[in-house]
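Tutorial sheet, problem 5. The four components below are modelled jointly, 504 residues in total.
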Amino acid sequence: MTSKGKIYSRDPGAMRCLSCHLNSLCLSADLPLEEMAQVSDIVRPAVTLGKREVLRSQGAAFDSLFIVRTGSLKQVVVTDSDEYLVTAFYLPAELIGLDAIAQCVFPGTFVALETTTVCEIPFDLLDQLCDLSTVVRRRCQQCLSHEIFDERLKLHLLLCRTAEVRLACFFEAVSERFRLRGYSPHHFRLALSRSDIASYLGLTPETVGRVLVSYQRQSLLIAHGSEYRILDLEGLKSLAAANGRRHRHREA
Amino acid sequence: MTSKGKIYSRDPGAMRCLSCHLNSLCLSADLPLEEMAQVSDIVRPAVTLGKREVLRSQGAAFDSLFIVRTGSLKQVVVTDSDEYLVTAFYLPAELIGLDAIAQCVFPGTFVALETTTVCEIPFDLLDQLCDLSTVVRRRCQQCLSHEIFDERLKLHLLLCRTAEVRLACFFEAVSERFRLRGYSPHHFRLALSRSDIASYLGLTPETVGRVLVSYQRQSLLIAHGSEYRILDLEGLKSLAAANGRRHRHREA
DNA sequence: CGACCCATTGAGAGCATTCAACGCGTGTGG
DNA sequence: CCACACGCGTTGAATGCTCTCAATGGGTCG
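Model answer (structure tokens):
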């Protein structure tokens, strides 16, 4: 398709990644300088999205991966039976579009939850880069594999959990994601609505609300709109770990 | 580590893949002859496992991917809170170990559900092959990406489903997996126990049993031990699609 | 300022779990 | 070869969690 030659000419905007505050978390994390420069070169300048603006629609041809710089997005899948399902959400430095590679089509719609900027990485260029650099290829592989395991285990755990435990797991994970990105793990704004959280966890908005109230009564966390303040992270963690329910299996 | 040269010398056992009955489904599917030969060369002769025998244990160093030739296996994860969770199972031609790549450790124990044979693909060799062949690399990428999306959507769907619908989804998916592999989609043996199925779906064995009885009363499917006969696949599918429950969202 | 969406609260119903008991088949050890 | 233990599958009754439905108030957008 596209000509294969010379995909990285050192242009003025290059080395963008090096100076980016997310540098250490991104796709380019831990890459040697040379490779990081190569990745830098194929990254398009950041795009800004307004709240509720769509980055890519479900079914659109897969052209690029994206990395969140600021703000956040959710992935919404509309199923055959016209259900509206929030299947993922993305915070700064997180990679969008990995699930589109196989089918060459975006499996869901990506919607900005607030004013958001994203870097675009054209996939055909990244693909060429993978051919040239083993390090980059491995890094991509790692990102892919990491998501598989992460998702699988978490979702399987949630399947047999009560609402109270599901939310504890959710906030524990979110808090950790913020912490890794250098934000406070105890106090953050999460632009997902209660309905979004409910959809993501397979609950109803009412139940989510009720559990939040019960958390507040237990002095675990306080929710004010989209502001969340975790008072007792350890308490939340033990709630999340407490195998919230049933199933007394033994080893194989 | 290992020397990079000449990883594919045409040895007598080569072209194994070409003559394998699973050829068209496997990792090697759709590869040009030359690449298929290369993959063939790094595949180790099939290993046989007895029932309940462990292929790799949770936490073991990641060394190889495996492909099921005959039989089946389950992946069991023991969580921090000592829960025993069935997170995946594998039928012939399916790829084991993709979720181990990121952490370089197997995230769960792989147990044979019956007498089973698997092909082993040493990962360091496959990795080298990816460096040499774009086609192989893309194919690996595809396998990885496919799992992400598949799992995510299915599990999120299950989260807000009743037991009746969860099992319908389960059998629809299993039937399809058998069909793709050339077996009857209507009649198959599934070596997973009721407890395994329950764990996989986040239910209790009792509930699984009760739903199976209700299916039988509705003439949807008949279960005799590990033999399953689907009488009304369409009925099962519509049950699975019927958004088994709640949540009336609108588009974004 | 009105429409609409989101969040919250309450009451009732339904579904799945829990707990308990039983029959069956298999594998083990005497 | 047989007895027994054990895991698996099944069934029943009761509890409890979460959904459903409904109504209200607050915030936002047009």
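Marking note: Residues 1-10 of chain B have pLDDT under 50 and may be disordered. Full credit if you identified this.
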